[in-house]
């Protein structure tokens, strides 16, 4: 019987903040104002109201307490890389260099490279875990896992030059897994999947010296470069940032996506539901939160175990209801149609429904404060990954070798917790929104008749002006979901097809943009195409690691018409980004030739030289650059202008 780690058990934490729950805050006008300021998610608003009245701390409260921000940190002008510091650049006080002699350009550039490397490491390490699970599955050491897409496995094997005809799926999976693991430290000086990029794009990388040599090498070298006394040229440092990000996008992240497809199924177009209304009052509710589908796959299977369903019935529940959060949820939504409760800023509010028995977490984008929130309710927070232990949670170590046993133990914990629910605290704020998801590259191509010609023809004819990738997270500097939804609505109105991943996709789902009926909001040309195919004008392509799907889509379209990615009428945006992963994602899109508009300003304004390089200078290097525009309407203008420019250069 699997039990939680006895040395790491949940301790109930007092969650209420008495100071916040003062009479002034209970003023209905103040509560109403805060609800409207914080989110456009209508089902989130009643739960924000509960949190305000009960003094339950949320991400917005913590953000308010951090104001005003340190201007030096916000500008990237603080440095704590060595024990001679910390240092800050304050020209008016004569502080124009750190103790080591680093100026503003160098300090800002080193901080940014550190951020890119952290994001690349997060996604690529996720990829490594998926590949290791494939290897353990192939040699019979993983409990309950199988190969579900042998066709994709063989396609990958052919990219590595393997003979596929005489090998079983398991034999081939073993060889492919070992080859992919070698990609993390390969000595051949290029990442295999980077060869998927158009030849013209690869030539740009080679000429600039940013072709990724291996996944781990670029990350390690990045950390070496930011050590005091190593990198001193801000341009050289930032070009290595592009190389590091390419090792993520065309390496670690792409491996995570492709091998997840091999193990858990390549997504196909399906229907499901999203928002906080997916919680069921009469069911045992279990949330899967984080990013790694290795865990969630087994929980899905465990939740259908007859013995556990019988136990739920004995406890008085009508069944076991699984819901997703963030990118683990996106993985489940794409492949299995599991309902999605919400994105990044819904995680505390989901607990505040009072109807959640267990929230299972793995890693990335998880608030360390969740056990504090859960302390107000009967909810258990169950951490599962040795990289991401969370004080106040129950820790069930999760490994592929004992995957099903651990999953059943956690589901049983949830079922047994059902009877501890307080019916008086339950608030399920509304009804779920229907969505159509599952738009992998393979699914999109299949919907087009297994050829890109219909899409290319629609773009050439002007029915679709171009395409935009809208990705990223939530950030309290931008009203929750406002940036994603407003930008997406504006783009489709201008006949620009939108593809999305991660929290951006869920924001659009909650707003009704992932339904075919949303074509009514699109321009005449895009609406005609969507109605003919029966698809939404905003396509959900997966989790944030699945931004690599967008790279593959762009590469295939570029190859179909014989151009580089930088020549396509496309643009990218991250309207509400917050994480290091988002910086890596934005960097590998720009490095691949995609003009990318950010919402919140990165911590670079302390160096005019760095700002100039990233927003203008990179056009001379990779034919793309960043822009920063927090207003989604103005961001749409920038993206449309860029797409029109690319159309003109292509003569369409």
Structure commentary:
The longest helix has 35 residues, at 104-138. The mean pLDDT is 95. The chain folds into four domains: 77-102, no CATH class; 104-264, Substrate Binding Domain Of Dnak, Chain:A, Domain 2, CATH 1.20.1270; 276-425, Rossmann fold (3-Layer(aba) Sandwich); 440-650, Rossmann fold, CATH 3.40.50.2030. It is globular and about 65 Å long. The protein is built from 26 helices and 16 strands. The chain has 652 residues and is α/β, with parallel strands linked by helices. Helix 19 packs parallel to helix 26. Helix 19 (482-493) links the parallel strand 11 and strand 12 (496-500). Strands 6-5-4-7-8-9 form a six-stranded parallel beta sheet. Strands 13-12-11-14-15-16 form a six-stranded parallel beta sheet, sandwiched between helices. It has a two-stranded antiparallel sheet with strand order 1-2.
Rg, alpha carbons: 24 Å
Helix content: 40-55%
Question: What summary fits the major beta sheet?
Answer: 6 strands, parallel
Spans of 5+ residues with little confidence (pLDDT < 50)? none
Domain count, please report it.
4
* Named CATH topology of the largest domain: Rossmann fold
Provide the structure class.
alpha/beta
* Terminus-to-terminus distance: 65 Å
What general outline do the C-alpha atoms trace?
A: globular
**What is the CATH class of the largest domain?**
Alpha Beta
Determine the strand fraction and express it as a percent band.
5-15%
Mean pLDDT: 95
Strand order of the largest sheet: 6-5-4-7-8-9
Separate helix tally: 26
């Amino acid at each position: 019987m699997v039990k939680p780690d006895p040395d790491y058990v949940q301790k109930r934490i007092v969650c209420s903040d008495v100071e916040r729950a003062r009479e002034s805050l209970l003023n209905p006008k103040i509560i109403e104002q805060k609800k409207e300021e914080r989110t456009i998610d209508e089902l989130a608003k009643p739960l924000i109201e509960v949190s305000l009245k009960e003094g339950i701390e949320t991400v917005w409260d913590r953000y308010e307490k951090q104001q005003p921000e340190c201007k030096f940190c916000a500008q990237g002008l603080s440095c704590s890389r060595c024990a001679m510091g910390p240092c800050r650049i304050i020209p008016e006080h004569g502080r124009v260099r750190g103790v080591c002699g680093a100026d503003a350009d160098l300090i800002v550039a080193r901080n940014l490279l550190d951020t890119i490397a952290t994001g690349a490491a997060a996604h690529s390490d996720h990829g490594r875990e998926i590949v290791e699970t494939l290897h353990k599955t192939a040699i019979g050491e993983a409990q309950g896992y199988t190969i579900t897409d042998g066709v994709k496995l063989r396609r990958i094997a052919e990219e590595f030059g393997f003979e596929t005809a005489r090998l079983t799926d398991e034999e081939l999976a073993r060889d492919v897994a070992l080859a992919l693991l070698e990609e993390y430290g390969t000595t051949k000086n290029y990442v295999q999947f980077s060869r998927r990029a158009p030849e013209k794009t690869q030539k740009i990388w080679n000429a600039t010296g940013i072709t990724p040599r291996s996944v781990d090498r670029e990350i390690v070298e990045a950390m070496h470069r930011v050590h005091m006394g190593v990198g001193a040229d801000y341009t050289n440092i930032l070009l290595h940032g592009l190389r590091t990000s390419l090792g993520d996008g065309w390496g670690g992240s792409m491996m995570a996506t492709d091998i997840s497809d091999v193990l858990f199924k390549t997504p196909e177009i399906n229907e499901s539901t999203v928002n906080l209304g997916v919680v069921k009052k009469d069911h045992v509710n279990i949330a899967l939160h984080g990013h790694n589908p290795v865990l969630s796959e087994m929980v899905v299977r465990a939740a259908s175990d007859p013995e556990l369903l019988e136990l739920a019935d004995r406890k008085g529940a009508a069944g076991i209801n699984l819901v997703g959060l963030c990118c683990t949820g996106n993985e489940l939504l794409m492949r299995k149609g599991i309902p999605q409760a919400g994105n990044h800023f819904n995680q505390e509010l989901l607990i505040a429904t009072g109807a959640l028995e267990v929230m299972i977490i793995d890693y990335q984008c998880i608030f360390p404060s969740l056990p504090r929130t859960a302390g107000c309710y009967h909810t258990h927070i169950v951490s599962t990954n040795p990289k991401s232990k969370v004080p106040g949670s129950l820790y069930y170590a999760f490994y592929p070798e004992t995957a099903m046993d651990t999953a059943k133990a956690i589901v049983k914990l949830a079922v047994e917790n059902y009877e501890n629910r307080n019916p008086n605290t339950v608030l399920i704020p509304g009804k779920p929104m229907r969505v159509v998801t599952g738009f992998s590259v393979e699914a999109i191509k299949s919907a087009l008749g297994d050829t890109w010609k219909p899409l290319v023809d629609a773009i050439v004819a002007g029915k679709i002006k171009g395409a935009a990738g809208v990705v990223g997270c939530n950030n309290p500097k931008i009203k929750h979901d406002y940036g994603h939804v407003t930008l997406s609505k504006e783009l489709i109105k201008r006949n620009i097809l939108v593809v999305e991943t991660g929290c951006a996709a869920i924001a659009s789902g909650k707003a009704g943009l992932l339904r075919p009926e949303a074509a009514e909001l699109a321009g005449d040309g895009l609406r005609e195409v969507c109605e003919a195919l029966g698809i939404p004008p905003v396509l959900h392509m997966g989790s944030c690691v699945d931004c690599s799907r967008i790279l593959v889509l762009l590469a295939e379209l570029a190859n179909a018409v014989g151009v580089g990615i930088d020549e396509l009428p496309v643009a990218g945006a991250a309207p509400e980004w917050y994480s290091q992963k988002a910086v890596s994602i934005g960097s590998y899109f720009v490095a691949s030739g995609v003009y990318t508009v950010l919402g919140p300003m990165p911590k670079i304004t302390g160096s005019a030289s760095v700002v100039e390089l990233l927003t203008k200078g990179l056009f001379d290097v990779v034919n793309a650059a960043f822009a920063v525009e927090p207003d989604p309407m103005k961001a749409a203008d920038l993206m449309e202008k860029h797409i029109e420019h690319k159309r003109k250069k292509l003569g369409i």
